[in-house]
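Box 3.1 A note on notation
Throughout this textbook, protein chains are presented in two layers. The first layer is the amino acid sequence; the second is a token string describing backbone geometry. Keep the layers aligned when reading.
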Amino acid sequence: MKNFSRNSKIGWAMLFAGIGVALELLLNWKLFVPLLIGCFIIFYWKSHKHKDSKKIYLIIGVSLVFIPIISTAVFKIFIIAAAVYALIQYSKTKNQPKRINVNTVPPDQKTKVNRKTPFIKNMLSGTRRVVNEIFEWDDINIQCGFGNTIIDLGMTMLPPGESVVLIRGLVGNIQLIVPIDASVTINHSAISGKLNIFNQEEELLNSNVIYYSDGDDKTSRKIKIVTSVIFGDVEVRRT
């Protein structure tokens, strides 16, 4: 493996950027002092008991931590490079759509490890739509960077038992369309955004919640949905 893959290059770039930001913060006291104060306020926010003022402490603490980080030259260079890279990759995928073929593996009595490419894959940026598509079911485990994600499971033949959908995103909205005859459990975590479960909406701020539908014992098909975003809305609705 002499050549680094694209994901490895992104990982190394993020690592070097993080080290550069940390060094610049340590060497610049004008940025380091507000960062320390922000960390102290966040620590105090966790132990603070008054709910009315907790949000104020959180906003002030996060701001004092976030502003010094984005003020570093290394962070600005990294964001510009990441934006240029994302635009290049988006232009390539738009001009040359990638075709995905789902291959099945025949059963074998011998013990061996098989590898299969899932139909739904990670995406760093851009809007993803998987609507009215028939595909072989595999548990979904994807990460989305920036952009909206829409996944329609209405055309998918879910197997009996529990099927898992795991989606992690940074900034963007997530919409899941589930079959009407399947029971659903949703475990959602977000820093800021709305959660809409079957037209029941809730505003979240640094929260994680669990919802589950009625009739779990009456159906053989169950969907466990685990979603997490930093900023964005999540909607789950029936077909």
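The first strand starts at residue 123 and ends at 125. The longest helix spans residues 73-95.
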